[in-house]
Amino acid sequence: MFVKTPKILSKLFPSLIWKIQTKKKEVWLTFDDGPDEKTTPLILSILEKLNIKATFFLIGREIEKHPSLTKSIIEKGHIIGNHSFSHLDGYMTRNKIYYNDIFKNEIKINNLNLYRPPFGRMSLPQIWFLRKKFKIIMWDIFSWDFIKNNSLNMKNNVINNIEKGSIIVFHNNAKSFSNLSKKLEEILIEIQNKGYNFSSTW
Ligand SMILES: [Zn+2]
């Protein structure tokens, strides 16, 4: 898997959103999975301190476990997107089961029609079907924040690849806690120091 999404992928799948077309120095910060009892409060406090708004792609199953964390994400002004109910892999799941799992989460995530596929993959028929219902948000930079002891690489992955319109992926789950607690704040400050703003407008 890649850190920086190769251009060929966005050419092959133009109906998916890999990057935002913009002339301004702005980037989109996204967090997949969760809410998580340790990682969500960490992320929220860093974002609040730096006055940054992000987009959280939440898992329905975890929303059910952590309603108050979900509430605080919304109350702090962040955007919420759908990351399915039980984090099924589109490649391994029959279409009907896959779609129902997404719609099961949609009931709870009612503000926007953003979808990010778990594992970042879907079959072509799944893309054709879901693009009619959702803005499907992929990414331009994958931080690899859930790999053990990877905080320095994670930082370089993001900082070295950032450009206007980049969509950056971190993870709002237990596996990413250690790396994010070491370096997330530093990364975001460095991005701000490079003159970028963070947008959560899709
Ligand atoms: Zn995920």
The CATH homologous superfamily is called Glycoside hydrolase/deacetylase
- SS-derived structural category: alpha/beta
Poorly predicted sequence stretches spanning 5 or more consecutive residues: none
Q: Summarize the biggest pleated sheet.
A: 6 strands, parallel
Distance between the termini: 25 Å
Total beta-strand segments: 8
Q: Specify the overall morphology.
A: globular
CATH class: Alpha Beta
Beta fraction: 5-15%
Architecture overview:
- The protein is α/β, with parallel strands linked by helices and 202 residues long.
- It has one domain (25-199): Glycoside hydrolase/deacetylase (TIM Barrel, Alpha-Beta Barrel).
- Helices cover 39% and strands 14% of the residues.
- It has helices at 7-12, 39-50, 60-65, 67-75, 95-106, 124-130, 151-159, 177-193, and strands spanning 26-32, 55-58, 79-82, 114-115, 135-136, 141-142, 167-171, 197-199.
- Strands 1, 2, 3, 6, 7 and 8 form a six-stranded parallel beta sheet that branches.
- Strand 1 (26-32), helix 2 (39-50) and strand 2 (55-58) form a beta-alpha-beta unit.
- Helix 2 runs parallel beside helix 8 (177-193) and helix 7 (151-159) runs parallel beside helix 8 (177-193).
- Bound molecules: zinc ion.
- Zinc ion binds at residues 32-33, 83, 87, 118.
Descriptive keywords:
202 residues; alpha/beta; TIM Barrel; 6-stranded parallel β-sheet; two-stranded parallel ribbon; 8 helices; 39% helix; binds zinc ion
Q: Which secondary structure elements does this structure contain, and how are they paired or packed?
A:
Blueprint: H1 7-12, E1 26-32, H2 39-50, E2 55-58, H3 60-65, H4 67-75, E3 79-82, H5 95-106, E4 114-115, H6 124-130, E5 135-136, E6 141-142, H7 151-159, E7 167-171, H8 177-193, E8 197-199
Parallel strand pairs: 1-2, 1-7, 1-8, 2-3, 4-5, 6-7
Helix pairs in contact: 2-8, 7-8
Bound molecules: zinc ion.
